[in-house]
Predict the structure of Helicase-associated domain-containing protein.
Amino acid sequence: MGMDNDLRFQWYVVALKQYAEREGHCRVPALHVEVLEGMEIKLGSFVSYQRQRRRRLETAVSRSTDSAAFSRLTQTYEKFVERKEVLETVPGWEWGPLRPGPASKAVRNDEIQQRYHSGTQVKTLADEYDLSRQRIHQIVGPRYEPAYG
């Protein structure tokens, strides 16, 4: 038994509010999954789709010349406007163009560097941060090779 579209939309909005409260913005990474009451919500996909849908619908409505097609588009757009208004109540919501997100990667990278220099192995860091070992090496910089004399 699946959720109806309106209920699913509301569920995503709750997840978006949770994300916005924690992160301070709604610039959700495309592949981000938010956990809400034990359920994994593909929030990045949802946010991307809403922004994309708005652009496409507004473009289609403005370009439509066929009255029957325009009528169908208008009905679809009216439904979207209801959802658009709900999204705009979420603190930090923006339609775009979006600025890059906060420097969360810089914070993560600093943490990786600190842990690496305190002796945490590259493999452990790669596993814990879900990054390749190569990426960990790029973050921590060139390896220190002691000179033997």
About this structure: The first helix runs from residue 5 to 23.
